[in-house]
Here is the input.
Amino acid sequence: MKKQTFLKSVFALIFAGGLLTSCGDAPKSTETQATDSVAVEEVQAEKELAVDTATSVVNWIGSKPTGDRHTGTFNLNSGTLKIEGDQIKGGAFEIDINSLVVTDIPLEDEYNAKLRGHLLNEDFFLVDSFPTAKFEITSVEAYTATEGDSTATAEGEEDLSIKDPTHTVAGNLTLRGVTKNITFPVKATTEGEKMTFEANFNIDRTQWDIHYNSDESLADKFISPKVNIGLSIKTQ
Here is the structure.
């Protein structure tokens, strides 16, 4: 496939490590369902910890059924987690869309810059109008395993689902001016006064009005609406 064609066949979104396999669609992970936004209630907690923006990262994987993929990252502008003991009670963080980095094409390759520009334009993030994205926690519960959690993974199949989750978190994800509520499992670990908040899930980008090449009738130009998001949020 020529690079120019490959460039036109890509997309991205917030939020899943840069693991690649020959699998063509989005990696296996928690499937989220976007619903209407939920009011964010003020939460009282023992501590409110600032997010360490230097070590926190949002990863993304965009893919096509033909097997093509792109991976990348976003940085955070700011954020806080509200903690009671070793339990998450609330929090929010802001994502810097302009910080988008493409990680699967060498930085010195001209197509890295072209892809990055394409992702930031009106086809995807429309960064001139919407330079940030935001996630605000609306509820937190202790994680309870469900029947679907035990679904076997075929040999050689990649599975980026979070392992040993501790919480189920719901929150409002605002992207390109659209706010939807999503729910996913989180693994929260503490070390001294610090906490690490890890998650991995798939979202449907069209629910945030990102429709570029999402029509299956486009055949080999079709880009999966699913985007894999990985969160690694660390407090200071």
Observations:
- The longest helix spans residues 110-120.
- Confidence is low (pLDDT under 50) at residues 1-24.
